[in-house]
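Key idea: predict the complex, not the pieces.
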Amino acid sequence: MRFTGGMIGSMAVLLTGCDAAALRPAAADGAAIARGREAAVRLGCGACHVLPGVDWPRGRVGPALSEMGDRALIAGRLPNRPDILAHFVRDAPALLPGSAMPALPMRDRDATDIAAWLGSLHAD
Amino acid sequence: MQTDGPLHHDADLARVLDGWPPPVLDPAGPYSEPITVLAWALLIGGTLVLALVLVALGVALFGSGRTKARLGGEKAIWIFGVACPVVVLTGLLVWGLTLTSHLSAGLPTGKEMRVRVIGEMWWWRVHYLDAVGRETVRDANELHIPTGIPVLLELQSADVIHSFWVPRLGGKMDMVPGRTNRLLIQADRPGIYKGQCAEYCGGPHALMGFIVIAHDPADFARWRASRRPAPIAGDLVARGARLFDTVGCAACHTVRGTPADGMAGPDLTHVGSRGTIGAGILPNNAGTLAGWIADSQAIKPGNRMPPYRQLSADDLRALTAYMASRR
Ligand SMILES: [Cu+2]
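Result:
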């Protein structure tokens, strides 16, 4: 895979910036996973994604999020690490300029919880 | 109370009857209170009657010969079979009718705030009226009211029969094509009260929700003063405004202060300040708004807005920014 300049830049922000420190993921315990699912529903991620185990809404603008824990790359571009995932769900355009996934203001805790939940989704 | 932001606390807007205490048993004003009182009275009364019948059944099955004979005697039948039901049911009828007589409204008396709500497949037009019934502001899917005064709703339908129901604020009233039905609601405390179309009206009827936002009177005056079309500021928003006309949104939607004057869909002049999107079913934020514009059919299957899968991510972002800025 080839790293683009923008990507290296954004990863540098991720690895060194203070934002990244704020989003250091908690241990992905059951409670965080449950809160993450609840936050994804509450924030309306279902308007664009099929969320596993959620029967409505089943958005089709973005990819289904089932098996997100097995994915090597986020959106085919970023390494699927909990801290990067947490950053991505809150501010996708900052990491992937031009992405149709919008920045979604949320609390740090929501972002890390959602990342924990997504990381727990595996093929059965 | 913050009323202009997304409803972060409320995920399941589509599930109006969920929650504890159940909204139907948790009245928040004088037009829903009597209904709850009546419901409890019927529930408790019904339980007592059931208990009585079970006791009688027990006696009939296991009682001694003498008690059985008494139970089947003419006197018992006159008392329990005729007198009791006549007295209880007549009493209940008179009491129930008196208790609820003020719930359906007659003509306006001048003391109420007046609003016309028109049911559409599968959303609501909301026209605020002045004291003599002239339209002041148009909005959709959301009703703002001050606390403590009755609000007289003039309910109409543009197509099929719908039913207006905000369980915590009042009764349920059908919206019948060609008629105006009047219903009073009132909220005694500020808050957000969920509503739902309560008469099957086809397709996504279950996703035809509604919210009422009750403000204390000073807050309400501020809200009312803020109902002026927002200026178009910034490049992204300006681009979104142009797209709104060129990709066809304007054919169905009105945005006051712009050339967009379509009537087929909800008025979007203030859509950015609405608490919900899709007629009371999802919290309104940058994500749900963009998701709705790109493919509302996945969210509310069968609704009358086409999906816009042809938009680029940039166009979608611009349209979403424009919509969010219509406050
Ligand atoms: Cu309906």
